[in-house]
Amino acid sequence: MSEALQSLALGRRPEGRTLITASWVVGHTDGSHRLLQNGEVVFENGEILFVGHRFSGEVARRIDFGNALISPGLIDLDALSDLDTTILGIDNHPGWAKGRVWPRSYVEAGPYEMYSQEELAFQKRFAFGQLLLNGITTAAPIASLFYREWGETVAEFDAAADAAGELGLRVYLSPAYRSGGMVLEKPGQIVPIFDEERGFQGLKDAISYIERQTGRHGDLVRGMLAPDRVETSTLGLLQRTDAAARDLGVKFRLHMAQGAMEVDTVRMLHGSTAPVWLAKAGLLSDRMIAPHATNATGEDLALYAENGVSIVHCPLVSGRGGSTLNSFSACRKRGINIAMGTDTTPADMLMNLLVGLITCRINDGAPDRVTSADLFDAATIGGARALGRPDLGHLSPGARADIAVFDLDDEIMAPSIDPITTLVTGGSGKVTSAVFVDGRVSMLDRKLAGIDMRKARVQAQAQYDRLIAKYPERSWNNPAVSEIFSPSYPIEVDTHG
Ligand SMILES: [Zn+2]
Fold it and tell me: What are the phi and psi torsion angles at 14 (to 5°)?
C-alpha cells in the first residue's frame, strides 16, 4: 500500500480534497458512462468535484490505485440482509417438504421469532459488511419473513440504521410488513391466510420509522416501504402503501410476477396476474420497485413500461432456482428501467452481472442483444433511477462520492483490454480493493470500519447451525434434519476418536 493510501482512516472522510487515479475511471457525460484512461476523480466532503484528466486545483492527497477501475459504487435494491437459506434448498426439493412453507401445525402452535433481536441486528451488520466487500455502496435490504413471527421489527431496523452509519453504507430501510402468509394444508397444497389489521399496523410502524430515521448518519439512511410480496398483501394494504409512499416521497418495493405459486395464488384471489390487478387499481407507477419479473407476461411487462415501474433483476438467485428474466434485453427495449439485486449469497454484484449476461443471451438465443455495459448500467444508473437519485450511480461533479475501486491486476483476473468487459466476465467482487461512501473510507484492503468480518463469520455460522436445528418443527410431518437436508454425498464420520 502506498503512503497516501495508508494515511486514509477507515470509517472517516479524509480532510480536504482527495484525488484518486487509476488506469481506468468510469466517467459520465450526457447521461451515459464513459471510460477515461488514466483518469482522475477529486472529491471533498462527500461530493465529487472533478472527473477527468489533469486536475489543476490543489489537493490534500493524491492516491494512485494502479491498474484498476475507479467505478461508481454498485447499487443493490434486493440486498440479502439475513443468513441466506435459499442455499439450503438448492439440492433439496420440493420446497414445501423441506421446511420452506409453514405447515398448518406450526401456524396453529403460533409462529415464533426464530432469532433474537440481537441476532437480527447482527445479521444486518454482517450482511452490510459483505455488501461493502463487494463494492456495493447503496443497499435496500431484503430478508425472508418465513423465519419471523410475522413482519420485521422496528428495533432491528433501528439497529440496522446504526450499523449502516457505523460501517458507512448508504441504505434504504424500513421493516417489511404483510397482511397474509402461505400455509401448507397438506402435501403440495399451499393456501394463503390473511390478517389485514396486522398489515396495517406494520405499515404504520414503517411510516413512523421512516419519518424518524430519514436523513440520519449524514443522510446515509433513507426510507423505502417494503410490503413483503404481492400474494400476501391485500388491496387495502397496497393502496395505503402507495398513498404513504407519495406522502413521504419514498419508493415502495413489492415482489411480484416472480414465481409460479404467486401467479397461481393471485389468479385465484383476484382473477388476473398481479401487475394487471394493480394496474386496474391505479397502483403501478414510478414509485414502485418490483423484483423479479421472472414470471411476467408480455402484458405485465407492457404495463411496467407504460407506468414507469422499475424491475429489480437478481439473475443469480433466479437462475439457480431455474427461472430467468425473459429477457433483460427485451425489457430494456420496451423502455423498462432495470435495477440489480443480489438477493442471495454470495452478495456479489459482479457475479450477478455475469449471470445476467449469460441468462439473457440464453433467453435471447443470440449473443448480440445485450452487452457487459448494459448490465453495468443496471447496477449503477438503473438502481439510481429506480430510487429517484440523480446524484448516485455515476461519477460526475456534484454527484455523491460513492466509489468502488476494482483491481484489474488481481491474480484471478484474465488479461484485459476493456475494464468493464473484464469485470463482468470475471464475475467476482473479490477484486474490490477500496470503497468510499459519501466520501468516507468504508472499505480498504478488505478491512471495514465497525465490524471484524472474520469474527462475524464465526458468529454467523453458529446462528445458522441453531436455525437449522429448528427446521423439523416447521416442516411437514416433522422429519429429522438429516432427512430434510440430505448430504451431497454419503457422510463418513471418524469412529475411532
Ligand atoms: Zn427478491
Answer: -65, 145
220 in the same domain as 102: yes
**pLDDT tens across 396-427, in order?**
999 999 999 999 998 888 888 899 999 999 99
pTM for this entry: 0.97
In a domain? residue 458: no
**Domain range spanning residue 269?**
74-390
Q: How far is the CA of 292 from the centre of ligand 1 (A)?
A: 6
Distance 383 CA to ligand 1 centre (A): 15
Inter-helix orientation angle 196-213/154-167, to 10°: 30
Residue 228 CA to ligand 1 center (angstroms) comes to 10
Nearest in space to 420 (alpha carbons), one of 16, 45, 70, 29: 70
- For 182-214, write each residue's pLDDT tens digit: 999 988 888 889 999 999 999 999 999 999 999
65 shares its domain with 92? no
> Sign of the C-alpha dihedral, residues 40, 42, 47, 51?
negative
- Do 373 and 401 lie in one domain? The reply is no
Tell me if 476 is assigned to some domain: no
Ligand 1 centroid to 64 CA: how many Å?
37
Within a domain: residue 463?
Answer: no
Nearest to residue 127, comparing CAs of 322, 342, 287? 342
